[in-house]
């Protein structure tokens, strides 16, 4: 299990858990970051942070400090 | 503030709910569901914008005249992901839906707008809304776009799953809207609600909402459309490591070029028209104190603020294009890193940038910042940015006191250097204040920056037009009423006792009275009067100084410059521009800050803080120059 922030560009992963206060966690879950959701790392902002993730067919940018608290399981290429 | 001067086109009556009868309809939907466009489409220009009591959430109410049901009231609720009341927006939505919001009629029916491009996720909001047990119509917005991109959904099956009617619409094109009229007519005939047993998920648990929404999407054969190819392609370029920031810079420069090269002449022309009209009306009234009150007092005061309207509207137009096209989110992404270093987030960048033209549209544009503390911090530092109303006094003082000496050839001279340092000064004050606020009264514990990147869309003229109209109206109503009062008070102060000149009036006496206070800054009583009179708007000081030095600033600015040179030291002159760099000499901004923060506490704090800072900085400047030169 890794943190979402550790994933490289173009990598897929499955959300395992959110290690965040309820308030923020619920907000992120409503935006698609629920356990078992597939997430793709799309790109980093020109300054290297935040990072854009695709989840559920749309794109959300998160700062590294937030992505660090999202536990994911990396998927192998093509799965 | 009194509402005596606002013209209300929408009359909202609060009546108790009558079962089966629909009078008020609530428009609910997640952010980016195209809800505002739909609201504008359904209500046309007949809408009223205000703040909900006690909070900073904007209340938008209109009549459903867009579909020929102008007897019905439509309430646009803030965009929400859920009814979890941790955000102010969601709290407001819950109170309105339950009919517990004072001053807002209880809705008898709900229109739930969902973006059909992201139905699976947006369906999560349907669960808590359906649990309210109000007559509900689900509107699948942007269904035309979904279908052209290969998406599909069985609406009949969806209606069965949800137990409420479902209609495919397009808010931007206005198709499918007759379904809303049908729904409202049918409900008004008081038919019993379909008794289909609805299986709703465990309330308040996002995971169970999610499973429920996924289940429904699968059973209704929802196929998400392919994400727009060119959004990704465009992002590849617009968020490119090198080209991204460069293009961003180009956009920023282009906006400013247009605001100043088109907006400034427009503002000047508009100002001339207003003044000419004032003079025309003045000749009809003849000479006397009524003419003076109406023309010199009210008309000129209000005109001095109205001249900013062309620039303000242009900026609103640009912010509208940036927001509707989807680029605003990308700009926030690019700027986030820089903004974070001062404790703000990327979304504060465009508002702060707009403030270089005018703080009013900038402060209204901070609504895109969800976090309230970040938003307030941005609002409080915005007036430090060098707005165009500061330029007349800067130009005057620099032309009068700074020799035209080259520094880097002919391109960059001493005058330009002084001008540039004034811009930098304002920027540094904003930075420092933001830091100060974010580490003290507006400290945020852990508000993450979550930014949704919508697909790129072509903004429609209709939506841009309505936006500019709506924001312009808010500015005129909010700022107009306050400005009218301030100009009235200022006129009385500068004309009482009657038949005296400005120096002998009350304001003149106050100017004399405060002279000892402002003397350390290098100011005399004339500057004091100028400072007092420019509380309505910064550029008013040039006109006041013109009157006091007996020169018409428009035609005899050289006389004024000479008179100022004779009357002030270099230290005093520089102290004056530094004072203007920091002081909150703008009634419109104060009025808009009051509206956006929904309290007089914040504008009062801002005014006090900026005035003290301006005084101290001017004092330091004068002392520095006096001892150095």
Quick overview:
The complex is a heterodimer of chains A (79) and B (629). With 79 residues, chain A is an alpha+beta fold.
Topology:
The complex is a heterodimer of chains A (79) and B (629).
Chain A: E1 2-3, E2 12-18, H1 22-30, E3 38-44, E4 51-55, E5 58-62, H2 64-67, E6 70-74
Antiparallel strand pairs in A: 1-6, 2-3, 2-6, 3-4, 4-5
Chain B: E1 24-28, H1 35-43, E2 47-51, E3 58-64, E4 69-76, H2 88-97, E5 109-115, H3 119-122, H4 126-130, E6 136-141, H5 143-148, H6 155-162, E7 166-168, H7 178-188, H8 206-219, H9 229-238, H10 243-285, H11 289-306, H12 309-325, H13 327-340, H14 349-354, H15 359-365, H16 372-381, H17 391-401, E8 406-408, E9 412-413, H18 414-438, E10 450-453, H19 461-495, H20 506-513, H21 515-518, H22 525-533, H23 540-548, H24 557-567, H25 570-582, H26 587-597, H27 601-628
Parallel strand pairs in B: 1-4, 1-5, 5-6, 6-7
Antiparallel strand pairs in B: 2-3, 3-4, 8-9
Helix pairs in contact in B: 10-11, 10-12, 11-19, 12-19, 15-26, 16-18, 17-24, 17-25, 18-25, 19-26, 20-22, 22-23, 25-27, 26-27
């Amino acid at each position: 299990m890794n943190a979402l922030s550790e994933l490289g560009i173009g990598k897929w992963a499955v959300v395992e858990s959110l290690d965040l206060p309820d308030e923020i966690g619920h907000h992120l879950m409503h935006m698609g970051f629920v356990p078992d959701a597939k997430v793709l790392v799309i790109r980093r902002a020109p300054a290297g942070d935040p990072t854009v993730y695709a989840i559920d067919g749309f794109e959300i940018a998160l700062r590294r400090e937030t992505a660090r608290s999202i536990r994911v399981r990396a998927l192998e290429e093509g799965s | 503030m009194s509402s005596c001067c606002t013209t209300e086109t929408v009359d909202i009556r609060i009546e108790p709910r009558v079962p089966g009868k629909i009078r008020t309809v609530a428009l609910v939907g997640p952010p980016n569901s195209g809800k505002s466009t739909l609201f504008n489409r359904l209500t046309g220009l007949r809408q009223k914008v205000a703040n909900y009591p006690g909070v900073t959430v904007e209340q938008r109410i209109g009549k459903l005249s867009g579909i020929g049901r102008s007897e019905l009231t439509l309430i646009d609720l803030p965009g929400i992901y859920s009814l979890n009341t941790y955000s102010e927006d969601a709290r407001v939505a819950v109170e309105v839906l339950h009919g517990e919001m004072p001053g807002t009629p209880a809705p008898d029916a709900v229109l739930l707008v969902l973006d059909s491009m992201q139905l699976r996720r947006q369906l999560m909001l349907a669960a808590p809304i359906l649990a309210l047990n109000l007559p509900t119509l689900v509107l699948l917005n942007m269904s035309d776009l979904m279908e052209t991109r290969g998406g599909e959904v069985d609406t009949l099956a969806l209606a069965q799953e949800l137990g409420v009617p479902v209609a495919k619409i397009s808010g931007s094109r206005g198709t499918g809207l007759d379904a809303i009229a049908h729904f409202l007519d049918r409900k008004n005939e008081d038919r019993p609600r379909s008794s289909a047993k609805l299986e709703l998920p465990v309330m308040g648990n996002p995971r169970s909402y999610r499973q429920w929404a996924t289940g429904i999407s699968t059973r209704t054969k929802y196929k998400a459309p392919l994400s727009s190819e060119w959004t990704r392609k465009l992002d590849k370029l617009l968020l490119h490591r090198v080209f991204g920031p460069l293009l961003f810079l180009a956009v920023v420069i282009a906006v400013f070029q247009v605001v100043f090269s088109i907006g400034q002449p427009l503002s000047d022309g508009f100002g001339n028209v207003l003044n000419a009209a004032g003079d025309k009306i003045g000749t009809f009234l003849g000479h006397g104190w009524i003419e003076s009150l109406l023309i010199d007092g009210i008309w000129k005061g209000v005109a001095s603020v109205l001249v900013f309207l062309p620039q303000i509207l242009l900026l609103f137009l640009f912010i509208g294009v940036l927001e509707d096209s989807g680029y605003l989110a990308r700009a926030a992404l690019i700027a986030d890193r820089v903004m974070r270093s001062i404790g703000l987030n990327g979304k504060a960048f465009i508002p702060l940038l707009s403030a270089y033209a005018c703080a009013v549209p900038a402060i209204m544009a901070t609504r895109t910042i969800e976090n309230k503390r970040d938003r307030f911090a941005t609002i409080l530092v915005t007036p430090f940015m060098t707005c165009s109303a500061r330029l007349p006094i800067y130009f005057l003082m620099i032309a009068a006191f700074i020799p035209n000496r080259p520094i880097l050839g002919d391109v960059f001279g001493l005058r330009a250097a002084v001008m540039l340092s004034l811009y930098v000064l304002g920027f540094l004050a904003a930075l420092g204040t933001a830091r100060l606020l974010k580490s003290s009264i507006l400290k945020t514990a852990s508000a993450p920056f979550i930014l949704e990147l919508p697909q790129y869309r072509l903004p429609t003229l209709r939506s841009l037009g309505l936006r500019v109209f709506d924001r312009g109206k808010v500015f005129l109503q909010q700022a107009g009423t306050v400005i009218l009062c301030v100009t009235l008070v200022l006129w009385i102060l500068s004309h009482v006792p009657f038949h005296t000149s400005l120096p002998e009036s009350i304001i003149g006496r106050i100017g004399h009275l405060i002279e000892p206070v402002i003397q350390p800054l290098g100011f005399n009583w004339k500057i004091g009067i100028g400072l007092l009179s420019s509380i309505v708007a910064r550029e008013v000081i040039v006109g006041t100084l013109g009157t006091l030095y007996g020169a018409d600033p428009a035609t005899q600015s050289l006389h004024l410059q000479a008179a100022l040179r004779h009357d002030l030291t270099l230290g005093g002159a520089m102290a004056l521009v530094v004072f203007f760099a920091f002081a909150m000499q703008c009634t419109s901004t104060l009025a808009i800050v009051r509206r956006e923060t929904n309290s007089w506490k914040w504008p009062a704090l801002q005014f006090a803080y900026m005035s003290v800072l301006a005084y101290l900085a001017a004092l330091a400047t004068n002392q520095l120059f006096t001892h150095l030169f």
